Amino acid sequence: MNVHVRTATVADVTRLQEIIEASVRGLQAEDYTPAQIEGALKTVYGVDRQLIADGTYFAAENLTPCSGDIVACGGWSKRRTLYGGDQYSGREDSLLDPSRDAAKIRAFFVHPTWARRGIGSLILEVCENAAVAAGFTRLEMGATLSGVAFYRARGYGEVEKQLVPLGNGEILPIVRMTKQVILNNETGNPG
């Protein structure tokens, strides 16, 4: 696997939206109904340009010769919003205080043809390291049902189940998960 993680840019938005839609339709079908998926794509899931502007959203590129195509994305945030793209009405973009607030792990999506190859873990490691470098010692997220096992395996614990109302009258169950970051004394990175 020849994949490189880089900071996403505004020029990536169209491809990021394609990745999000393919990921949701292809990887969440076992956990959500078609109506929930379509409702979530219209009102919750989507590109968050604030993450891109903050430099905290990442794109994983396939670096095989002549490709350079984005195959996954994910990020972290120093803002209060727990989930949701630009179109989500429940956003709160005020800044967090690293001494008392948890950084938010946000908007992880992998194209189905690239799933289960370690790319999500690679992006998560980049995000955790960046959040720690910004002074955060706690992380939290609103995980989809499809992502709970992935995050649990990486040290996140389930805190509460939440129900997100969707614009089409459906409800999207998610799970708020948290992780206390333990720093490696030798490297300063999460250990």
Care to describe what's here?
- The protein is an alpha+beta fold and 191 residues long.
- It contains five helices and seven strands; from the N terminus they run βαααβββαβαββ.
- It has helices spanning 13-27, 34-43, 49-54, 119-133, 148-153, and strands at 3-7, 57-62, 70-77, 103-110, 138-144, 157-165, 171-180.
- The protein has a seven-stranded mixed β-sheet.
- α1 packs antiparallel against α2 (34-43).
- The longest helix is centred in the first third of the chain and has 15 residues, at 13-27.
- The protein is globular, with a radius of gyration of 16 Å.
- The two termini are 24 Å apart.
- The mean pLDDT is 93.
Question: Characteristics of this structure?
Answer:
7 strands, 191 residues, seven-stranded mixed β-sheet, alpha+beta
Mean pLDDT: 93
**Rg, Cα atoms, Å:** 16 Å
Structural class: alpha+beta
| Proportion in helices | 25-40%
Number of helices: 5
Any low-confidence stretches, pLDDT <50, length ≥5? none
Beta-strand percent range = 25-35%
**Going across the major beta sheet, what is the strand order?**
1-2-3-4-5-7-6
Q: What form results from the Cα inertia axes?
A: globular
Span between termini: 24 Å
- State the total count of DSSP E strands: 7
Tell me the series of helices and strands, N- to C-terminal.
EHHHEEEHEHEE
Please give the largest β-sheet: 7 strands, mixed
